[in-house]
TrEMBL record:
The chain holds residues 283 to 442 of 442 of the full protein. It is found in: Cell membrane. This is histidine kinase. It comes from the Bacteria. Residues 1-153 form the Histidine kinase domain. Coiled coil: none annotated.
């Protein structure tokens, strides 16, 4: 089933903005994808963005901001990024964040609820859709998860 990515991202971002309101975190949606479709499982893709945005809000400071971006790269893939300005992930923990039950810097995340499963699930969903996921993080710049997914851009004469 072709998934209209722009709309899906918009829906998840709106839902997350409501959830983030209590913490006064602003969710900024900068996705710019016109007529870009992803072949796959829409509930899974929704869950993928939900996990990344949920973490971004969770690990943001009160009153912080979270940005989601999505751009077409070339003709058949999109690059999506979810960026927060929280404390970042210690460098020594970065290689493990996609493992099941891994939680970085236990002392610091002790007061943040979580099971350590979210990113493992996100990783599975990305793999299932033949994409790639990666992370960049530092104390100064916060954390950015980058997801690359294969997409299709239908010609004008084809209706999906
Ligand atoms: P849950 O899956 O229940 O949300 P979780 O957030 O602990 O729990 P993951 O989403 O798998 O689990 O994340 C694994 C670990 O990676 C987290 O415990 C946290 O230490 C770190 N992490 C993930 N995203 C961020 C982020 N945006 N900023 C800082 N640390 C993060």
């Amino acid at each position: 089933q072709p998934i209209a990515l722009q709309r899906l991202i918009g829906e998840v971002a709106d839902r997350m903005q409501i959830k983030a309101g209590a913490k006064e975190v602003t969710v900024i949606n900068r996705a710019e994808l016109d007529s870009v479709f992803l072949m796959g499982h829409s509930d899974s893709i929704r869950q993928l963005f939900y996990i990344l945005l949920d973490n971004a809000v969770k690990y943001s400071e009160q009153g912080g901001k979270v940005e989601i971006e999505a751009l077409l790269e070339g003709t058949n893939r999109v690059v999506c990024s979810v960026h927060d300005y929280g404390n970042g992930i210690p460098e020594e923990d970065l290689p493990y964040v996609f493992e099941r039950f891994y939680r970085a810097d236990k002392a610091r995340s002790r007061n943040v609820e979580g099971t350590g499963l979210g990113l493992a699930i996100a990783n599975q969903i990305v793999k299932m859709h033949k994409g790639q996921i990666s992370v960049k993080s530092s104390k100064e710049q916060g954390t950015r998860f980058i997801v690359v997914l294969p997409v299709i851009q239908p010609r004008g004469d084809i209706r999906l």
